């Protein structure tokens, strides 16, 4: 199969950082190569931030917050910038559709579709400027004539994003932070920095005041400088649970604020009345999105024991028909993994599953004819025990495990027997049963008959899947601090 080769990279200045409202040269000559996931060829290179670059970005954000106009604007004024950003993002959809598949393996068509949500996120938070109660009266309990709750920006935000869905995750961090009045240091991942650089170009285009958004790319070791800097008031992080624990430890030590959206090993609880063939089709199709590199993937399929074989066969049949290949080919249904390291990880878990005694029903290897690129076959394991590593550890690739349950309560027990609690779904023809079972699942989101992870309402996890929520009104709250004010009389200008 011929793989689409890359043309010109649609980025203006990948060799510089965006700090303090201008493009600046890095303090070292270090660079990071971004490798095309389908061809294994270097797509482009970006400057690699060192500690001094991070410090400069934090300094610019701090000055913009302490002395600049941004926090002192009205929410309506900041909303106008969000609307301009939304429009500018819409103009860059095709650029994203060229960069994102090469960085992370998503299908180009899927990338274009996802961008609708990204555009909408900036518009949504712009609209909240008029409806969210940034100030509201409160009755004093200890004297005083008038009380108020005032919700003010938390300050300087360090936003650390992963490589899998960067434009989406940037939007749900940046949009609420900007509406609140915060300034931001956006730290891109070394594997997929293109989205952050596009947002830097957009910040310049729409005229964001200097220092409101600062963009750097750094590896993990240097990124810790951002977390440790006392000038940073809050860290918002999406990534692995292990990295999230390290960030939480550092921020707790200095009593900084943090939001963590971490890993998952999410369960699909398939009840006895479910349409197994339809459930298998839905679950297999969802797992092909971004080659299973999604924290909210429904990878533990819990099914009544007497319907186990039917589910395994349905998933195996669906996966056997998936065309894997060039993410720019409209006929392809699943692209490559993002990196060689990711493919080695997935292949390692396939070996673990076999050694644990799971039945390999489909996949497990590399697709025939794809000798270049980080391609894997979508894989199904049956007869999995929930205590096994392939059922407990996040694989972050297209690997589904089918786990038999004795009855409904056993299925709920198995679903909750995990350190994670990010996402879940209940497959049943009965909506009331879906609600009843869903209320017993310890997960931040519970869907019905599909993966219903929804950033528009709010997304985040229970247990080791994270702290806090992103998206919706809940996603604005972490960027605000409540201030109680008790005055002798109601002020004349107060609403």
Automatic annotation (TrEMBL):
Residue ranges occupied by any Aldehyde dehydrogenase domain in the UniProt entry: 23-484
Highest taxon of the lineage: Bacteria
Keywords: Oxidoreductase
Keyword Oxidoreductase tagged: yes
Oxidoreductase is among the record's keywords: yes
Annotated catalytic residues: 261
Gene3D superfamilies noted in UniProt: Aldehyde Dehydrogenase, Chain A, domain 1 (3.40.605.10), Aldehyde Dehydrogenase, Chain A, domain 2 (3.40.309.10)
Pfam families, A to Z: Aldedh
Molecular-function annotations in GO: oxidoreductase activity, acting on the aldehyde or oxo group of donors, NAD or NADP as acceptor
Similarity comment: Belongs to the aldehyde dehydrogenase family.
Protein's name in the database: Aldehyde Dehydrogenase
Natural source organism: Pseudonocardia dioxanivorans (strain ATCC 55486 / DSM 44775 / JCM 13855 / CB1190)
Organism lineage string: Bacteria, Bacillati, Actinomycetota, Actinomycetes, Pseudonocardiales
């Amino acid at each position: 199969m011929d793989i689409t080769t890359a043309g010109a990279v649609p980025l203006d200045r990948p060799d510089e950082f965006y700090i303090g409202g201008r493009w600046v040269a890095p303090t070292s000559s270090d660079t990071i190569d971004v490798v095309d996931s389908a061809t294994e060829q270097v797509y482009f290179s970006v400057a690699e931030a060192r500690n001094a670059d991070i410090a400069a970005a934090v300094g610019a954000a701090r000055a913009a917050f302490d002395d600049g106009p941004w926090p002192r604007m009205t929410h309506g004024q900041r909303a106008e910038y969000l609307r301009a950003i939304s429009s500018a993002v819409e103009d860059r959809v095709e650029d994203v559709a060229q960069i994102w598949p090469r960085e992370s393996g998503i299908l180009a068509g899927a990338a274009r579709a996802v961008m609708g949500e990204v555009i909408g996120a900036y518009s949504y938070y712009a609209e909240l400027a008029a409806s969210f109660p940034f100030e509201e009266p409160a009755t004093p309990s200890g004297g005083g004539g008038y009380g108020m709750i005032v919700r003010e920006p938390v300050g300087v935000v360090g936003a650390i994003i992963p490589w899998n869905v960067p434009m989406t995750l940037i939007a749900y961090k940046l949009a609420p932070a900007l509406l609140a009045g915060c300034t931001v240091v956006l730290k891109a991942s070394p594997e997929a920095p293109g989205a952050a650089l596009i947002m830097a170009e957009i910040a310049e285009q729409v005229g964001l005041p200097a220092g409101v958004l600062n963009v750097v790319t750094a590896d993990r070791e240097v990124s810790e400088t951002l977390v440790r800097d006392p000038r940073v008031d809050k860290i918002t992080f999406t990534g692995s649970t292990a990295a999230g624990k390290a960030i939480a430890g550092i921020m707790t030590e200095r009593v900084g604020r943090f939001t963590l959206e971490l890993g998952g090993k999410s369960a699909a609880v398939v009840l006895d009345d479910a349409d197994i063939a339809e459930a298998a089709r839905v679950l297999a199709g969802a797992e092909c999105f971004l080659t299973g590199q999604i924290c909210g993937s429904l990878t533990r399929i819990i099914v009544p024991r007497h319907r186990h074989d039917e589910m395994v066969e349905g998933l195996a049949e669906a996966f056997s028909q998936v065309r894997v290949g060039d993410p720019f080919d409209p006929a392809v249904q699943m692209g490559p993994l993002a990196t060689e390291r990711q493919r080695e990880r997935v292949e390692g878990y396939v070996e673990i599953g076999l050694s644990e005694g799971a039945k390999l029903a489909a996949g497990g290897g590399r697709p025939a004819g794809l000798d270049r690129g980080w391609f894997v076959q979508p894989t199904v394991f049956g007869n999995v025990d929930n205590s096994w590593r392939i059922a407990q550890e996040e694989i972050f690739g297209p690997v589904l495990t089918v786990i038999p349950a004795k009855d409904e309560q056993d299925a709920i027990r198995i679903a909750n027997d995990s350190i994670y609690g990010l996402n879940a779904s209940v497959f049943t023809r009965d909506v009331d049963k879906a609600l009843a079972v869903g209320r017993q699942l310890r997960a931040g989101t519970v869907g019905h008959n599909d993966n219903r992870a929804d950033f528009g309402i709010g997304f985040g996890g229970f247990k080791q899947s994270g702290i806090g929520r992103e998206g919706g009104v809940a996603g604005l709250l972490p960027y605000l601090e409540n201030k109680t004010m008790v005055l002798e009389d109601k002020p004349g200008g107060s609403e």
